[in-house]
Amino acid sequence: MPALKERAEKNYSDTVFVGVISRYTPEKIFQGYQPIMDFLSRRSKYLFELKLSSSYDQTISQLKKGEVTAAFLGTYLFVTNMDGNNLRAVLKPLNSNGKPYFRSALIVKTNSDIRTINDLKGKKLALPSPLAFSGNWLQKIEFKKSGFNISWLKEIKHFHYHNSVAKQVLMGNFDAGVVKDRVANEYIGKGIKAILYSGPIPGSPIVISKKSDKEKVKILVNALLSAKRDSSVKNWDPEFSNGFTKAENKDYLEIKKMILGEK
Questions:
Q1: Distance from C-alpha of 262 to C-alpha of 118, rounded to nearest angstrom
Q2: Which domain holds residue 14?
């Protein structure tokens, strides 16, 4: 791999660790996120390295302890931890339309007779981590709007990864599931269809803490803001392959109120 040879030949002044929540398998994270680290390493005097975690909460802990300079967080995880933890969003990804939003999708098999939320009565529902926005969107927003009671489901089960949810639906083990649109797009037309999407949600932020080194953060931010003009983004995880824009905590306040039921 050219990237490995390039990294071996360059003398770096320090290593910058970047955390990432465990929304995908380690192999899938490495495939989509390591090219971002290589991009950052090529554009600075620092070696950027991923620091994986075994849970969403572990990534928050890494930030608070200063074990990572920055971290890729999910939107739900960020809004439920931004207060009192001195966490600050600095970047958010752009979608294919150049907008800093994503959507969650309720998916079923292509031949399913489930067309609305009320059709989920007596059905089995697969969800990602309880700390992922997507599962919370359906339960705390859409179920409430539709007057749907969770007890009407035959079964509800959380899976560690978004892709696991899609595969469970595809295999017929569960009647429906909720995933990020980025994951839904991998399966739509291949035995899966989406029957409902959320409204636009602020993109999963890159977050720093009060212990983050300001110089290293500045290098990371400036490099990723320029990434949309660099051809290497095509190798990045699809969620980030359209580049980034600046983010602030206030960008997430409305969704925080919505998901937590705050006034």
A1: 26
A2: 2-100+202-260
The pLDDT score that the predictor gives to residue 6 is 57
Length of the chain measured in residues? 263
Longest dimension (CA), the chain: 60
Catalogue the E-assigned strands of 33-185: 46-51, 70-72, 87-93, 101-102, 104-109, 124-127, 155-158, 176-180
- Shared-domain flag, residues 91 and 111: no
User: Which residues of the chain fall below pLDDT 50?
Assistant: 1-2
Cα 228 to Cα 244: distance, rounded to the nearest angstrom: 7
Predicted confidence at residue 165, as pLDDT, reads 97
Amino acid at 176: A
**Selection from 204, 158, 156, 162 nearest residue 187 by Cα:** 162
Residue 257: per-residue pLDDT: 87
Which residue, of 199, 232, 249, is where some domain finishes? Answer: 199
pLDDT of residue 8: 55
* 92 & 219 share domain: yes
Q: Are 204 and 73 spatial neighbours (Cβ–Cβ below 8 Å)?
A: yes
